[in-house]
Design brief:
This protein is of the alpha+beta class. The chain is built from 7 helices and 8 strands, in the order ααααββββαββαββα.
Amino acid sequence: MENLQAYYNQGVDFLLKVVPQFLWAIVALLVGLWIIKLLLKASNKAMEKANVDVSLRKFLNSLIGIGLKVLLLISVASMLGIATTSFIAVIGAAGLAVGLALQGSLANFAGGVLILLFKPFKVGDVIETQGHTGKVAEIQVFNTVLKTPDNKTVIVPNGAVSNGSIVNYSTEEKRRVDMTFGIGYEDDIQKAKDILIDLLEEDKRILNDPVPQVVLSELADSSVNFAVRAWVKGADYWDVYFDMQEKVKKAFDANKISIPYPQHDVHLFNEK
């Protein structure tokens, strides 16, 4: 009988000790989940105001939510008297193993975050990076998708993009078209220069500010070369470049101005 009384007293003491801890742990869990929900809403609004990409916002919110919930569970476990030291060690080891296994993906993710935050380019820009040139079709969390002029799709890892050089052809409204045209040494330099200036003035796509330039740039091996520099809107760059090649050839032909090309003179000697 005395043993039953002792067991009863121990049980009552255990319940009086555990039940309050259990109730406090449940309250802490519910309050913690509510606070995490508020924090996630606040972080989402902050990233939305900062114009962070939608896909990145969702990914970061998910990552933050998982981290906060893990911390909350560890705190609740410690309130119940569960030893959390080994639990934390296991989580740390698992995190290290995952980090080493996914270090390439994590580098690409970090690169994607930097691109979406600092915006060195945006969707629709024409860029050159990692040896590829094309229009940006999509900026993903891990990769940047380019469409080349011949309609190929190039997927470039964001880690390489963010750590390498980027040439953005769409940042500035104006671009300078650099062209070189050569004439023969026997041709009239001033006449050729006047023809080039007239062609620039006739093309309404060529801007007057900055003023187009036609200068004699080089006395080459077989030609006298003119450097032609004209400023245009970015969208007109290639149209102006290709049109000028055709117009200059036709104008030089009409005015009897030669366009030299490499030639070799072969001398034959008749030996007896």
